[in-house]
Each structure stands twice: as C-alpha cells, then as structure tokens.
C-alpha cells in the first residue's frame, strides 16, 4: 500500500524508530515520531543501554537500504576477532570464522542514533518530537496518549496507524497486555546475571591501551568481562555477573576494597588498564538482562510492535540492534508488495519475521553460556595444542 497521504505515528526514536522514520519518510509517508528522552544531539545524555554495540552485516544491509552506508562506515571500528584474556594475562586472538576478511564493527550507539535522526529529519514529511512520553495506546481508536516531560501536559495523537519502537518496556505492548481485548501472549525471561558498564580510558597521548581491532573477552566460567573499542581511544567494558550466586556477585560487591580484590583475582590485566575502576563501578548502574517474546505484534491494521518492543533479546549474540534494523528491511520489502491494507501488511510481516526473531532470541541465550565459559576453554585448549605441536 503506497498511499503517500497516510499518517504514521512512531513511538520511540531509538535505533529502530529513527531508521523506520527515515525509511517511511523516503517512501513518502507523513511520519510523526514521539520520543520520551531529550534530543541526544543537543543534550549530554547517554543514548540508553550500552554505549557501543557490535554492528554486523545484517545491520549494514539496512544502512545500504537507506543510502547511508558510507556515513555509518565512518563511525565503525572493525573488530577482526575475539581477543581472549586468561587469568595470567595471556591473550589469544581468534578470528570469527577463520576467514581474516570477515569482521564485525564496534559502533557508538549515540553517534549512530544521531545520524539516523538527522537523516530522517532531512525529509519534510518527517517530524520528530522529543521529551514526549507515551503513556498508553488506544489500539481500537488508533490514538496514543502522551505526556510532555517539561510541562506535564497530556495530549492525544491519532494516526492512520501507530508503530511502537519504544524498546523492551513498550507502552503499546503494556496496553495490549492490560486491556485484555484479544488473546495476547507475552513472556519475559530474566537472566540470573546483570551487567554493569565500566571503561578503559585512552592513554595520556590518546592511544588505545590495548589492541584496538578486537572484541576483548575475559571469560571466567560463570561470569565475564568484555570490551569494545570507541573512536576516541577508549573501550567500553561490560561486566556480566550473577546478582546472587558465586563467591563474587553484584549483591556482595559493595565496597571499593571488594571490587578491587575481585578484579585483582579475576581480571588483573584489565585492572591495570582501569585506574578508574572503582569510580565507574559505583557511579554506573547495574541493569538486568532479559528476553521478551510476544504475539500478536499487531492489532488489526491499527498498531504494530517493532524492534525490541516486539522481541527484546539478551546481548550475547550482538544482534538485538541488528535484528531491529532487519525488521525495517523486511517491513520495507513487504511494503513493496502493495498488499492493500495495513492489516494484511502487519499480518504478513509478523508471519515472516517472528520465527527469525524467536530463533535469534534463543541463540543469544545459548551464546551467553558459550561466551562466558566454552569459548575460553575451547580456544585456550586449542592454543595449548598449537604450542605443544
Ligand atoms: P531502544 O534502543 O530501546 O529504543 C527505544 C526508544 O524508545 C528509546 O529512544 C526510548 O527512549 C524510547 N521510548 C521508550 N519508551 C517510550 C515511551 N513510552 N514513549 C516514547 N518514547 C519511548 N545489539 C546489537 O545488535 N549489538 C550489540 O552489541 C548489542 N549490545 C547490547 C549490549 C547491552 C548491554 C544491551 C542491553 C543491549 C545490546 N544490544 C545489542 C541490543 C540493542 O541495544 C537493542 O536491540 C536495540 O537498542 C533495540 O532498538 P530499539 O530501537 O528497538 O529499542
């Protein structure tokens, strides 16, 4: 259906919502976007979870679709493989596929989000409003209730259809769940582990303190640390750890002394690069990790869930954002089919897409165990075999 006069309301201008706004703008729809946070291009806020992300070919296909591949490439740092760190500080670089030309990229969430917003706003038919939080969606009437963050005024917006790209805590999904007007299945599975972001700052002369072009992993059986490079010479470090289990866990890492002891014992080579560890540890939040599955994603032809709002996954396959970008690519292909009504479009989209997003969700949980335990064991065993040969 290519009725250019159709008004589409998008809730959430994160990675998926800003890409969707750009693509629908390119297709000629009237697009209005409401984002609850301030504009990250003019405010000093983090873009939300995880400062940087692994950006793969799946995500890059979406950038090609909207014609900004080169602009995105300038934000990317190729990571040619995983660099494993053992407790003694030995390292081993393992290519992802054995083929040296294959790599994934590290990319800044906020830079990528900012680029997508700017590209979307180049279209006169796309308008983005910030500081407007969606409270609920009336999916029968195709209207959404918003609150202005500054004035606290509430207002209602209507549209020909509403697409929610408002992430794992989606307001539309909550409305589906709470209203109980149709059979809506929903599950949310939490991991026993949470995560905390830390950092390795650049050296005094601005250089990277460890090898730049790798995804660094310190696998330790039941927990792990990873680090991805940033363009400014720093690395964003993420500690994945149980909340309650094991000798060290998030609940008992309560003092600078215990945190330092933990890193001295488990990650001594990382600690050497992180003089700011204790400040980071106590300033930065600890956040949970979960998988959201639900169905149906749409209500008639009125409303649709897309991105994390439909299928939030744990980050261990590095594919949540990439899959959310792929949502937009698949949706775009379905629009090309001129199926007639939004209802048919939404039905077709969910039919094609859900099996894939369910599969990546399960793979991501499997890869959690693989990364924190097996990757380290298998690769270090392989390394010992090579050394002995
Ligand atoms: P979000 O990025 O969550 O964006 C939702 C937007 O909606 C936000 O801007 C939010 O402010 C806004 N919003 C929310 N509620 C409302 C409301 N009520 N009204 C208005 N606006 C609202 N993926 C990868 O591909 N590679 C990785 O390496 C990777 N690493 C990750 C590491 C961690 C620690 C985590 C937690 C996730 C990681 N992910 C990764 C997953 C990735 O972050 C998500 O899949 C991706 O952000 C989903 O994009 P989205 O736009 O659907 O949702």
TrEMBL record:
Lineage top rank: taxon: Bacteria
Reaction catalysis annotation: L-kynurenine + NADPH + O2 + H(+) = 3-hydroxy-L-kynurenine + NADP(+) + H2O
Reported cofactor(s): FAD
Domain FAD-binding: 7-360
Pathway(s) served: Cofactor biosynthesis; NAD(+) biosynthesis; quinolinate from L-kynurenine: step 1/3
Keyword annotations: FAD, Flavoprotein, Monooxygenase, NADP, Oxidoreductase, Pyridine nucleotide biosynthesis
Enzyme Commission (EC) number: 1.14.13.9
Entry similarity comment: Belongs to the aromatic-ring hydroxylase family. KMO subfamily.
Protein function: Catalyzes the hydroxylation of L-kynurenine (L-Kyn) to form 3-hydroxy-L-kynurenine (L-3OHKyn). Required for synthesis of quinolinic acid.
The name this protein goes by in its record: Kynurenine 3-monooxygenase
Residues of the full protein shown: 1 to 389 of 466
């Amino acid at each position: 259906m290519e009725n250019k006069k159709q008004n589409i309301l998008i809730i959430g201008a994160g990675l998926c919502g800003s890409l969707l706004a750009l693509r629908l703008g390119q297709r000629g729809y009237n697009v209005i976007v409401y984002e609850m946070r301030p504009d990250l291009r003019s405010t000093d806020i983090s873009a939300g979870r995880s400062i940087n992300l692994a950006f793969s070919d799946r995500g890059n296909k979406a950038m090609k679709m909207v014609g900004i591949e080169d602009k995105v490439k300038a934000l990317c740092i190729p990571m040619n493989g995983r660099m494993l760190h053992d407790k003694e500080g030995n390292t081993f670089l393992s290519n992802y596929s054995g083929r040296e030309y294959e790599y994934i990229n590290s990319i800044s969430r906020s830079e990528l989000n900012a680029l997508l917003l700017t590209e979307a706003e180049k279209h006169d038919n796309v308008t983005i409003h910030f500081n407007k939080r969606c409270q609920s969606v009336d999916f029968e009437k195709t209207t959404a209730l918003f609150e202005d963050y500054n004035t606290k005024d509430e207002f209602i917006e209507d549209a020909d259809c509403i697409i929610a790209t408002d992430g794992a805590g989606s307001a539309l999904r909550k409305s589906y769940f709470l209203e109980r007007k149709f059979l809506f299945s929903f599950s949310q599975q939490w991991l026993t582990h949470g995560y905390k972001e830390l950092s390795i700052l650049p050296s005094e002369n601005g250089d990277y303190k460890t090898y730049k072009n790798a995804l660094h992993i310190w696998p330790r059986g039941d927990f792990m640390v990873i680090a991805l490079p940033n363009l400014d010479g720093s690395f964003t470090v993420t500690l994945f750890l149980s909340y309650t289990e094991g000798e060290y866990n998030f609940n008992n890492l309560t003092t600078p002394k215990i945190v330092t002891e933990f890193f001295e014992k488990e990650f001594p080579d990382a600690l050497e690069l992180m003089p700011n560890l204790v400040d980071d540890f106590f300033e930065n939040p600890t956040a949970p990790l979960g998988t959201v599955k639900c169905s149906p994603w749409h209500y008639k032809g009125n409303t649709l869930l897309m991105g994390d709002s439909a299928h939030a996954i744990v980050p261990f396959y590095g594919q949540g954002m990439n899959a959310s970008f792929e949502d937009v690519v698949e949706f775009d292909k379905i629009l090309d089919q001129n199926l007639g009504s939004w209802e048919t479009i939404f039905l077709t989209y969910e039919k094609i897409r859900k099996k894939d997003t369910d599969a990546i969700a399960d793979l991501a949980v499997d890869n959690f165990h693989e990364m924190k335990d097996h990757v380290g064991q298998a690769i270090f065993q392989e390394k010992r075999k090579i050394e002995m040969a």
